[in-house]
Amino acid sequence: xxxxxxxxxxxxxxxxxxxxxxxxxxxxxxxxxxxxxxxxxxxxxxxxxxxxxxxxxxxxxxxxxxxxxxxxxxxxxxxxxxxxxxxxxxxxxxxxxxxxxxxxxxxxxxxxxxxxxxxxxxxxxxxxxxxxxxxxxxxxxxxxxxxxxxxxxxxxxxxxxxxxxxxxxxxxxxxxxxxxxxxxxxxxxxxxxxxxxxxxxxxxxxxxxxxxxxxxxxxxxxxxxxxxxxxxxxxxxxxxxxxxxxxxxxxxxxxxxxxxxxxxxxxxxxxxxxxxxxxxxxxxxxxxxxxxxxxxxxxxxxxxxxxxxxxxxxxxxxxx
Length: 320
What we know:
The protein is mostly helical. It has 11 helices and no strands. It has helices at residues 26-34, 36-58, 89-125, 127-141, 145-156, 160-170, 172-186, 190-197, 202-238, 249-258, 271-295.
């Protein structure tokens, strides 16, 4: 199919119609190809997930196996050295990824379901429902996250389930407000009003018409929330409020600090775990931004650059 020139473009410039792509498949892949940083972030996140899943099979040593002296230096047999118990650091990081990523994804699931549900109900029904739910959201927004997590985790006790619930119950507020604003816009569109006039119930309208429209921004926000959840888990574990029976990146850093790794000069007991946390946070941030662009085409307006347009004189009119 040949492309026709568009009126208003400079002479000799033909606007080619981009090939059609699927909304959630090809377009996302196209964005990842166009944004190397986003592709790198996706590779980093997927790599850590695979390492976490395969840790029992690919770890060089056992999790509690002592293979050398206390704070043994990096060597050909132990690339990242040993911790204060003589355990290989690579093994600890692999098993620590399992706990940190589990908490990050599980807490994000709790925050996404809670925040998404509250946002949809508040934005769709409005009125008293909106006022009550948003006032509750405002109260949670003004609570300092880390102090509140410390208090709740200390009261509930050190447990992985408690950590997931604490983090999830604090990260839903941003999701709720974003989804609420989107739902308030979607419910006023013509096709939603038409469905309501034809007798469609609230449940059908929400499931068939509202949720598909707000899903893109919800997915993007959920991916970005994973990074925050992993950081919060690391902070709580470092403060000694994590599950003592589970090894995580925060627990590795806490053990190194408590057992004088800094004064002993054993930087390898602290730095690698911090780098892992930073890489996962960076990867989730890049992927979340890419998903937001891919699933919300309205954010992609670079093809409408005004610099390509030029006003032409009307044909047939002669200057006086």
